Amino acid sequence: MHIIAIDGPVGSGKSTVARLLARRSGYACLDTGAMYRAMGWKAYTTGAPLNEEDLERLCVNTKLEIELTNDKQRIVIDGKDITAEIRTPEISKMASVVSRFASVRVYLVRLQRDIGLDWAGRYGGVIVEGRDIGTVVFPDAPVKFYLDADIQERGRRRWEELRGKGLEVDLDETTKGIIKRDESDKGRSVDPLRKADDAIVIDTTGLALKDVVERMMKEIQQRSH
Ligand code: DC
Questions:
Q1: Owning domain of residue 64
Q2: For ligand 1, what atom is nearest to the CA of residue 129?
Q3: What confidence tens digit (pLDDT) does each residue in 53-100 have?
């Protein structure tokens, strides 16, 4: 049973490589950012006050399900499929806000461990991507990667991704938004974005993501012997 942790900031390429790696290996892929987005969406749509107590209550009264069909992850909250709705810039901001609260992190980390172990058993392995996977969620994962890239390239990647979804966004604004989210992700007091001591660091600036995947596959194969 294999658990592969992938961490890194927005636009480092981790979501894309996690998906490609899953396809190559046959493992399942768990995008934990989508789970913070789901709680951000719920806080946003219900107007829940943003404090530990109210957010804890919100989590307790939430049924969050991650469904995997044909290697696509769908997010279902309280029976409603919100997979597409959680990708807007507003929900990105809200996800970052709620991810600073310990009550939300405790709830989601527990769920991530349960789902990760379940999928690892069912699919022979699981690739889990996020910000604190190698440090908090699965600190004993046998293979950990930390992906990064320079800020201009990360801004451009996110901008292209959003435009690809038909959203009218400005490149400068997108890059500024990423800088803000970096500060928030790295600066929060609970489980900040941080490289695990034993993570393999890959700077993806200027690299084709398929080449990054090749390199990661080699590392995974080496470490599974
Ligand atoms: O990867 P993403 O952009 O979908 O993540 C959304 C937000 O969730 C981001 O601001 C960081 C936060 N997050 C986190 O705190 N811990 C994780 N394991 C994954 C995401």
A1: 2-224
A2: 18
A3: 999 999 999 999 999 987 789 999 999 999 999 998 899 999 999 999
Tell me: the pLDDT tens digits for 166-179?
Answer: 888 999 999 999 99
Q: How far is the CA of 131 from the centre of ligand 1 (A)?
A: 6
State how many domains the chain has. 1
CA of 194 relative to ligand 1 center, distance in Å: 12
What is the residue with the minimal CA distance to atom 2 of ligand 1? 33
Sheet containing 125-130, strands listed edge to edge, beginning at the edge strand earlier in sequence: 28-31, 125-130, 2-7, 143-148, 200-203
What CATH number does the domain containing 140 carry? 3.40.50.300
